Amino acid sequence: MIFNQEHWMQKALALAELAEKQGEVPVGAILVKDDEIIGQGYNQPISNHDPSAHAEIIALRNAGQKIQNYRLVDSTMYVTLEPCAMCAMAMVHARIAKIVFATKEPRTGAGGSLYQLLQHSGHNHRIEIVEGILQQQSSELLKRFFRSKR
User: Fold this and answer.
1) What secondary structure letter does DSSP report for 59?
2) Does residue 111 contact residue 87 with C-beta atoms inside 8 Å?
3) Containing H/E element for 144?
4) What is the pTM of this model?
5) What is the pLDDT of residues 88-139, one digit of tens each?
6) Are the CB atoms for 118 and 126 separated by under 8 Å?
7) Left (φ > 0), alpha (ψ -120 to 50) or beta: where does 62 sit?
8) How far is the C-alpha of 71 from the C-alpha of 92, rounded, in Å?
9) CB of 39 within 8 A of CB of 30?
10) Catalytic residue positions, numbered
């Protein structure tokens, strides 16, 4: 069965909700290859005392271990928030094919909002970008989280 982008983004949103329940910024990520989840993660920098424990990085690490390769070619990352520079460059190095993100991050986004690292002409690999899938749900989750912190 071939799933659509909304299906995978719903799974990423469920992970983002797990992050929120743990007091983390609610971001979730799913890495899919051949219509199968090969990696997943949610934000955990606070609980893990690790500034690199973003949802995307955890999903990439999880996938690398699962397929026993640091190159994750022909895979698609579904993430609830536009990636930061660290996450974007990790995806470029992993050679993922596509990123689908729900909502833009105007302050730190590296998929076109602040920087464009996913398709930078200086890189030897460029990642296809799809944005706006379940944008409203992701945006509301983030807004609710930050309202609760004020």
Assistant:
1) H
2) no
3) helix 135-149
4) 0.95
5) 999 999 999 999 999 999 999 999 999 999 999 999 999 999 999 999 999 9
6) yes
7) alpha
8) 10
9) yes
10) 56
